Amino acid sequence: MRRAVSSGSFDPVTNGHVDLFERAANQFDELIIVVSVNNKKSPLFSLEERVALLKQATAHIPNIVVEPFTGLLVEYAKTNGASAIIRGLRSSTDYDYEENIAAMNKTIVPEVDTLFFMTKPEYSYVSSSIVKEAASYGSDVSSLVPEPVAQALKKAYTVNG
């Protein structure tokens, strides 16, 4: 079985993420999306909420598994029999950052490759932080995120706002 993993904090998952997952899932028998904890960020949604939203956003892709994860992704990939780590790139800045991580991962676990997928132009400016900022001011972000996420953002900023 050809298996790959992709990871992120997904706070929240965007349509750009979903597009990446759809394309990557076409290349592998199974794509595991791990929702990670990033200690450098203060998430709007809990880990459980992010996992649930991601499961809803990818329910139409039959060969995707979503689960929470803490630790080193390349070790997770090796332990779970994945041959590749999937990363999305929006710009050369993303590449510069991801290239170093890919090199380190290759040093730690040589049998796991990192594959980069370029973001579609219509999603090149979309990031979770930009979406959250716009939503926090009451902007309609429904064209940038899956419907369950748009509703969750509306609710979060109505309650927290």
TrEMBL record:
Q: Which residues form the Cytidyltransferase-like domain?
A: 8-133
Q: Which domain of life is it from?
A: Bacteria
Q: Which GO terms describe its cellular component?
A: cytoplasm
PANTHER family for this protein? PHOSPHOPANTETHEINE ADENYLYLTRANSFERASE (PTHR21342)
Q: How does it assemble?
A: Homohexamer.
Q: Which family does it belong to?
A: Belongs to the bacterial CoaD family.
Q: Which NCBIfam families match?
A: coaD_prev_kdtB, cyt_tran_rel
Pathway per its UniProt entry is: Cofactor biosynthesis; coenzyme A biosynthesis; CoA from (R)-pantothenate: step 4/5
Query: What residues correspond to the site Transition state stabilizer?
Result: H17
Localization in the cell? Cytoplasm
Per its UniProt record, what Pfam families does this chain match? CTP_transf_like
- Name the Gene Ontology biological process terms: coenzyme A biosynthetic process
Role this protein plays:
Reversibly transfers an adenylyl group from ATP to 4'-phosphopantetheine, yielding dephospho-CoA (dPCoA) and pyrophosphate.
Q: Which key words tag this protein in UniProt?
A: ATP-binding, Coenzyme A biosynthesis, Cytoplasm, Magnesium, Nucleotide-binding, Nucleotidyltransferase, Transferase
Under the heading InterPro entries, the entry gives: Cyt_trans-like (IPR004821), PPAT (IPR001980), Rossmann-like_a/b/a_fold (IPR014729)
Q: What is its EC number?
A: 2.7.7.3
Report the source organism.
Answer: Alkalicoccobacillus plakortidis
| Single annotated GO MF | pantetheine-phosphate adenylyltransferase activity
Binding site residues for substrate: S9, K41, L73, R87
The protein's enzyme class: transferase
Q: What is this protein called?
A: Phosphopantetheine adenylyltransferase
Reactions catalysed: (R)-4'-phosphopantetheine + ATP + H(+) = 3'-dephospho-CoA + diphosphate
Q: Which residues bind ATP?
A: S9, F10, H17, G88, L89, R90, E98, Y123, S124, Y125, V126, S127, S128, S129
Cofactor or coenzyme needed:
Mg(2+)
